[in-house]
Amino acid sequence: MIKRIFDIIASFFGLILLLPLFLVVAIIIKWKMPGPVFFIQKRAGRRGIPFKICKFRSMIVDHGGSTVSVKGEKRITPFGAKLRKHKIDELPELWNVLKGDMSFVGPRPDMPEYAKRLIGEEKKILEMRPGITGPASLKYANEEEILNSVPDPIEYNDEVLWPEKVKINLDYYYHRSFFGDLGLILKTLFL
Questions:
Q1: Better pLDDT: 171 or 33
Q2: Which end of the chain is more exposed for a tag (fewer CB within 10 A), N or C?
């Protein structure tokens, strides 16, 4: 309960404080990247219920690429690369936190097809709200660079990264605490 209250208050004030930055980013996206300002995509939320995640768009429109992003891809625009480097593209997720789709801390929301791969005890991960940050997000903060260094990024993601994130998220499920979450938020801010 305290976590949800914190999420509501912090996301509300975060959205207000960051509004000037949101406006500047939105204007630059419209100027440099024809198309919508926001990227909206269906993700698996708590209990596996789909929700629409909101981010600043960092790729060209209708790129038709995979769900795995690799640093330096042509579908990522130059300004989009800057947004992604500093995680500014993730800031509109504060709206998802305010609405209750997400929390500040939790497992990153997967595409629905990945959530369906969870088996047995792993499904406990879906009992939590997905988060903007979390232990797996921090461990793999440079995920796009890792994927850029392997011959087959999709295979490496599916066979190495994703299973490792599942283990980390399950460990978080069993050991999570409000003060632990505050520590993860601070680590994220100073990453």
A1: 171
A2: N
Boundaries of every domain in the chain? 2-189
Residue type, position 34, single letter? P
Asked whether the beta carbons of 7 and 131 are under 8 A apart, the reply is no
For the chain, what is the radius of gyration of the CA atoms?
A: 16
CA nearest neighbour of 58 among 42, 47, 46, 74 = 74
pTM summary value: 0.90
The residue assigned the tokens 């980013």 is 25
